[in-house]
Design brief:
Keywords: Oxidoreductase. It comes from Trichoderma harzianum CBS 226.95. Pfam families: adh_short (PF00106). GO terms for molecular function: oxidoreductase activity. With 126 residues, the chain is α/β, with parallel strands linked by helices. The protein has one domain: 3-Layer(aba) Sandwich (Rossmann fold). The chain has helices at residues 6-9, 29-39, 51-60, 82-95, 122-125, and strands at residues 17-20, 43-48, 72-76, 101-103. Strands 3-2-1-4 form a 4-stranded parallel beta sheet, with helices on both faces.
Length: 126
């Protein structure tokens, strides 16, 4: 069995740009991915579905003084809304010239058969 330890085995990500979706849960995988990427030097754009979730996630990063506040930017993204997706892509394109890492971590579980505006079921859209 091979053990991989991110604190020692992950290479430097200085100069790399990452987008991580689904980074809103203060104890979730998405937030920990953001943390590891930022700790290893990447500029991270972390997405959350709401401004409230972004604020909560941002505040949880106060416990990591080794991560500079400018290393992570929190952006709102609703993956069930194509307009929101397009706006995020345009926003990131304005901020950086290239994207090196994309982590599609967002998920949604619904019991309804609600169809979003562009005819995708919510579960499939995310």
């Amino acid at each position: 069995m091979c053990a991989w330890i991110p604190t020692t085995d992950m290479p430097s990500l200085r100069g790399k740009v990452a987008v991580v979706t689904g980074a809103s849960c203060s104890v979730g995988i998405g937030l920990q991915i953001v943390r590891q990427l930022a700790q290893h030097g990447a500029k991270v754009y972390a997405t959350t579905r709401s401004a409230k979730s972004a604020m909560k996630a941002r505040n949880s990063f106060l416990q990591y003084p080794e991560i500079a506040p400018e290393a992570v930017e929190w952006l709102q993204l609703d993956l069930t809304d194509l307009r929101s997706i397009t706006e995020l892509a345009e926003d990131v394109k304005k901020r950086v010239s290239s994207l090196d890492i994309l982590v599609s971590n967002a998920t949604a579980i619904t019991t309804s058969k609600k169809i979003v505006a562009d005819r995708w079921e919510k579960n499939m859209a995310v």
